Amino acid sequence: MDFHVTLTGRGDLAARIYRQLLEAILDGRLRAGERLPPTRELARRLEVSRNTVAVAYERLTAEGFVTARVGAGTFVSVDPLARPRPRRAPGDLARNAPVGGGVGPRPLWQAIPLWPKRRAQAPYDFQVGVPDPALFPLESWRRLVSRELRSSTLHSADYIDPAGHHGLRTAIARHIGISRSVRAGADDVLVTNGAQQALDLIGRVLIEPGDQVAVEEPGYPPARLLFRSLGARVTGVPVDAEGLDVAAIPSAARLVYVTPSHQFPLGTPMSLARRTALLDWAERRRAVVIEDDYDSEFRFSDRPLEPLQSLDRSGRVIYVGSFSKSTLPMLRLGFLVAPASLRPALLTAKRLSDWHGHYPHQAAMARFIDEGLLARHIRKANRVYAARHGRILTTLRLDFAAWLDPIPSAAGLHLCARLTDAVDSRQVLARAAELGVAVESVAGYHAETVPDRPALVLGYGAIPLDRIDEGLTRLAAAFREAAGAVRETSRSDSRASR
Fold first, then answer.
1. Nearest-5° Cα angle at 356, 354 to 361
2. Looking at the whole model, is its pTM more than 0.70?
3. Is the terminal CB of the chain with fewer CB neighbours within 10 Å at N or C?
4. Per residue in 79-96, pLDDT tens?
5. Residues 6+ apart with CB under 8 A from 281
6. Over 70: is that where the pLDDT of 305 sits?
7. Distance CA 430, CA 213 (A)
8. CB 254, CB 211: distance < 8 Å
């Protein structure tokens, strides 16, 4: 590959070429086995003598960082990073040393935790928010994407409408109109790179530094952290069996973020009375409500309640959706439906942030919806997830009655269950991990309060039906051990008090 070398300034040219090649090897830009440019070619590009380049290469060869192969070229040696850095004269790299060790972000960014890397998948993985990729009709998707990448379909090399592919916006409006009763046309829809970008655009357009934003407690951490990063004062509002407690929303809140169809992570839907109360509150306070409908495509019983967007008569609700749960997260396809008064600003924010997403994927998704493939996939996946949801719920009620109380939930890719006082949730989680079972605690979704009762969240998108029974058997073993430890501690305390 071409390698950029800078020779501005004065000094030994061969030494400068050597230093820059060495640093590229040591920091991994030039990897083991990669071929350096021929000395003649690099000398021509740098407008120096071939001998100058050859001296640099010879020094790297002598130190073992590169190997010359007769008739083939010069290659980075195997495992150069394992070698110690050579000793150099004082100031040897001073001119090329990176400057900025004292440069840091705003204090706000030091307070926001780095998002953890995706952990290795456990043998019995009940992780939350992950769909099953094996269910996705990959061959059909590949056919649609290949069709859009043909030269005949690439009508223009110009930048595209920030709102997104018009066919996809039309298809989304029809899809959510039929499946969720959302009132929208193509012009109301803005395509985004996932729901998170939709939230970012909304925040950029509406939040002034210092504005108060209300979120659910417990709730979705990335939304809370995003609003904080935009300068908002984020306040958690408690959630009960009917959803967000509207009476507890701070009066100064300018923006309210909710997941009313399937509260994240508890799973309870917001009652119609609470939905009406929230809309009345927003109208009185001239506030905006973000309705995140992240996984309501999958519903196993009960008729879905009307979305806030369809009940809204004063233009206060922004509806956010995503294809991450219904298809694949890696596609990064989401959307928002906003009141007409906000569309120009949202389009401008989209254009200023990334202009537009992956257009061939957007066009392919439009066909995926129009050809009925999305609806067919959702029906199939819904049957699979319903079976997993039912198996977990039945087992919890039968085998975990002494330890867990499932929270009613009839949608989505996870369910939640509260623990009794008979066990220590931390011991359960630690022992479950040792047994190869990945389960999450609801405590991780609380930011301002400690839950009254500990609870576990069990996802079923990542675990096949035939592994659920063994996974729950191992989880039950973890509960038994934790419960035994509690009894033993109680007996010891009783003996000590005599």
1. 130
2. yes
3. C
4. 644 555 555 554 444 444
5. 246, 249, 287
6. yes
7. 35
8. yes
Q: Are 177 and 184 in contact (CB under 8 A)?
A: yes
Q: How many degrees, rounded to 5, is the angle at CA 222 between CA 113 and CA 459? A: 110
What the block records as the tokens of 440 is 């999450």
CA atoms within 13 A on the CB side of 244: 31
- H-only helix segments in 233-325: 272-285, 308-311
* Tokens 């190869």 found at: 436
The confidence score (pLDDT) of residue 155 equals 60
Residue 111 has pLDDT above 90, yes or no: no
Task: Look at residue 118 and tell me whether its pLDDT is greater than 70.
Answer: no
What's 66's DSSP letter? E
Closest among 300, 326, 157, 304 to 335, alpha carbons compared: 326
How buried is 388 (Cβ within 10 angstroms: 0-12 exposed, 13-18 middle, 19+ buried)? buried
Name the residue type at position 399. Answer: D
> Do 446 and 133 touch, CB atoms closer than 8 A?
no
DSSP 369-436: HHTTHHHHHHHHHHHHHHHHHHHHHHHHHHHSTTTEEEPP--BSSEEEEEE-TTS-HHHHHHHHHHTT
Q: How far apart are the first and last CA of the chain?
A: 79
Residue-wise DSSP of 202-257: HHHHHPPTT-EEEEEES--HHHHHHHHHTT-EEEEEEEETTEE-GGGS-TTEEEEE
Report the mean per-residue pLDDT for the chain. 89
Residues 6 or more apart in contact with residue 241 via CB below 8 angstroms: 268
Q: What is the pLDDT of residues 200-230, one digit of tens each?
A: 999 999 999 999 999 999 999 999 999 999 9
Q: What is the per-residue DSSP string for 71-122? A: TTEEEEPSSGGGSPPPP--TTTTTTTS---TT----HHHHHSPPPPPPPPPP
pLDDT of residue 296: 85
Picking from 191, 228, 189, the residue whose alpha carbon sits closest to that of residue 210 is 228
In this predicted structure, what is the pLDDT of residue 486? 56
Let me know: does 326 contact 384? Beta carbons within 8 Å. Answer: no
DSSP state of 186: G
Nearest partner of 256 among 281, 273, 274, judged by Cα: 281
- Contact criterion met (CB below 8 Å) for 32 and 64: no
The answer for residues whose C-beta is within 8 angstroms of residue 387's C-beta and 6 or more apart is 465
Q: Which strand ranges, in their side-by-side order, compose the sheet holding 414-419?
A: 404-406, 414-419, 455-459, 440-441
What is the per-residue pLDDT for 372? 96
